[in-house]
Amino acid sequence: MPEIIPTTHALGADIVGIDLAAPLSAGDFGFIYQAWMRHLVLRFRDQSLTDDQLLAFSRNFGPLDRNPRHAKSERQMEDSSDYVNVISNVVENGRAIGGLGHYEAKWHSDMSYNPVPAMASALYALEVPPAGGDTSFASMYSALETLDEATRERIANLGCVHDSSLNSVGQLRVGFEEVTDPRKTPGAVHPLVRTHPITGRRCLFLGRRRNAYIPGMELADSEALLDMLWTHATATEHTWTQQWRVGDLVLWDNRAALHRREDFDGTTRRVMHRTQIGGDRPF
Ligand code: SIN
Fold this sequence. Notes:
Blueprint: E1 3-6, E2 13-16, H1 26-39, E3 41-44, H2 51-59, H3 74-77, E4 85-88, E5 91-92, E6 95-96, E7 99-100, E8 105-108, E9 120-127, E10 135-139, H4 140-145, H5 149-155, E11 159-161, E12 189-191, E13 193-195, E14 202-204, H6 219-233, E15 239-242, E16 249-253, E17 257-261, E18 271-277
Parallel strand pairs: 2-3, 4-7
Antiparallel strand pairs: 1-2, 3-16, 4-18, 5-6, 8-17, 9-16, 9-18, 10-15, 10-17, 11-12, 13-14
This protein binds succinic acid.
């Protein structure tokens, strides 16, 4: 039986004693699923996975979403693998092999700009830079539970627009124009506070800060409230940071966790393969 070693932070745990290259038994899957619901982010170290094995592991959790298209990733436009998304700064023969480059990826929840955002993401490290490129996670359970009562009441029935025009490193997606007025931001509107469909726990659902807007509010009030919520939600007490090693696979729950990636030296190499598991409409 595998073992769980929780981080000492608001979220995150290592699962040790399991080889994800092999099919998961029902018992091991149940164990992993329960640990995941409890800790939101699971790390499996020292794995050696082909894309097919990464896909097979990910499909245990539900049907997969197709790749989002990154602004700078030419290869992905013609890649036959629709379900393995390459996240990399590496350029080969003048072409980017993946998305997001070496830039900081701001706090976000994957594909939250869609009406039905991704439930989960699995990120597997093939090459990591000697420094930088760490990925931090923030628990939106803990963020909501530590908000003062008055703010919780104030936001209980509010929605928020999640910008679909920019990706997490600030690149304009193909077919979008730059947003100059957040009241006109394109993207899905989701509740600011959602209920996790499996655990039944309530959590903040902030998605992404840039161009966010709370419909029905004066712009200045929306900006002030969102700034306050984001500062609170991403405070260190709610976070844990993953320092990557080759062979790490990290699985996270986009419904109740945000993540961000720090930048790194663009002359070094970082190659990650990511899958996304489909979700349901936030409520
Ligand atoms: C992502 O935002 O999904 C990428 C995270 C990373 O590159 O660590």
